[in-house]
Structure formats: structure tokens, C-alpha cells
Amino acid sequence: MQSIIKIRSVVVLLIANLIISLCSTPVVYLNENQILYAMSTLAQVIAGLFGLVLAAYAIIDPKLKDIGNQSKQSSDYVDTLRSRYFQNIIVLSVICAITILSSLLTINLYTEVSDKLFSILISQASIFGFFSILCFLYFGCSLLNPNALEKISKEEKKEIEDGYGSNLMDDDFKPFVAYYNKLESLIFEFATELMDKDLQGTLNLKYRNGRMQIFQALDILVMNEIINRQLYEKIDELRRYRNALVHSTDDQKVIPQIFNELKELYSKLFEVYKNNDDQEERIRAIQNLYAFSSHISLSQLDQQIIEIITNHAGISAHEMVLKLQVTRATLSRHLKKLSFMEKIKEKENGYYIIS
Predict the structure, then answer these.
(1) Percentage of the residues of the chain whose pLDDT score is greater than 90
(2) Is residue 150 part of a domain?
(3) pLDDT the model gives residue 352
(4) Is the pTM of this model over 0.70?
């Protein structure tokens, strides 16, 4: 979204400059040497700044990757931050190339075009150069921001809480974190026991060494039809919410509805685990767990997505991002969740409601 705002700002400036250049006479006149010096210097400065920013990115990105590998709770935020930085590098590369090409174009055409057109060319190149310098400085500062991960965790927490549309909050987040940790331990233990006996020792070793990932454990439960994809997405949402609470330095409070869903999910999954040796009771417990998944309430954002798709059948994901003012990653998670719940379906030309 920030990139779109930046692009729109540049387009507005360029259009305004074009109108002003066409409707007014030049105020400053430059000779040949001044033109060559100004444009060549601009191109060199932009190229130099891009090189410095690229070097800083090459140093910081591996360090962020190491942080993500060392901390499971930070891995999501690190991946998000690395993705943002990479996207910014792509945008900066394009801006840098346009600025340099614009400068070279001005140098090569200043003797071939009219004064009016030359005025447009040199002012456009100057705007690109000024905008490029601002972008480089902004990105350089963002690379050095020590609170970048915390900011992302706050965004994640706010996104999930806004989805529930509730202002009622519990004061203490610690019971929620403790309960989630119980759920995660249960998932790991259950997944390990479900694996083939020939591999069980290896998986136990991985679990003890902390190398088994939560998604691997959830995949095992899905493959054994203990949980469905709706529960998979719900557990992932609870995991992200727990991580956001842990990393936030603000006054951490929890929405009671989320906590209640966590407790009920743990209780029903534990019933399945407890009756793993009793086939009849196990089937009944799994049915109760599946029934719980079908009654998981839709978040406010889910309802907005359904309403938009209902009113605009065949709408694309990009159009929904613009309408909802959310990130593509956020929208993707909710679209996947609604697809698993069989509320919507994706076709070649967009998304539709399942009637």
C-alpha cells in the first residue's frame, strides 16, 4: 500500500510539472556545461546511493534470517520484514533505473528538442532524482529501525483483533499464552504418536531438539484426519496471536472470544488424544471437534470479504486489497480460510460465493 501511495505521489508531481512547464516560460536557463554537470552528477549520486543501500541490505538480510532461524516465535515477523525489504529493493531498483535513464535522455536530447520540451525533460529528471533520494533515505532508516519487528507484531495483533470487531478485552494475557503453549505441546505429542513406529524414534529426537515445526505437526494431524483445514487455519491464527502478544511491549490484553475458542479447541482436541486407543470414543471425539470447527465464528474481515464477493462476483484479490485496505498476505490468509469453510471458491476470473 505504501508503494502505491508513493507511485501516485510521483505521478501527481509529474502531471503537475508537465502542466506548469507547458503553461509557463522557463525561469532558469542553463548552458551546455551546466546541463551536463547537473544531469551526470544526479545520475552518479543516485547510482552511489543505490549501491550503499544495496550493500546495507546484503548485510542485514542474512542477520534477519539468522534471527528467524533461532526464534520460532519471531520467524513469521522476520519473513514478513524480509519480504518487505526485498519488495522495497525492487521498487528502488526501478526508480533508480528510471532516474538514470531520464538523466541520460536529457543529456542526449537537449540539443535536439525545443526549449519547452527540454524544460519538461530536465524538470522531470529532477523530480525523479529528488524522489529517489527521499526513498533511499527512508529505506535506509527503515533498515536501521530497531523496532521493526515489534511494529510488525503490533500490526499482526491489531489485524486479528480487528477481525473480531470487539472492544472488550481481558487485562491479563498470560493465561492465554499458557493455554496456547499447552495446546502446542498437545499437538506435538499427538503428532509424534501418530507417526509410523519405524519413524517414531526419529521424530521424538527431532521434537526433543526443538526441530519439529508446528506446521509439520499440524500436517500430520490433517493427514490422519484428526483435524480439518478449518482447524488448521484457526490454530495458525491462535499461534500468530500468541506471538504478537509475546513480542508486543504495549499493554497486552486479550479478546475473551479468542481465549474461549482456544480453551474449547484444546478441550476437544485433548478428548481425541485421550481416547486414541478407544476407536468408538475416538470417532465421537473427532466428530465433536469437527462440529466445533463448523461453528467457528467468522471474523469481521471475513464477513466483509464475503459481502464484497457477493456484491462483486468475479472480483480479483488485487481489487479486494484496494477495497479493504489490507495487505495481500492478510487477504490471502482469509481467502484460504473461507475456501476451506466452503464459503467462497476461486475461478480463473476471480472469486465467487458458493451458493
Answers:
(1) 7
(2) no
(3) 79
(4) no
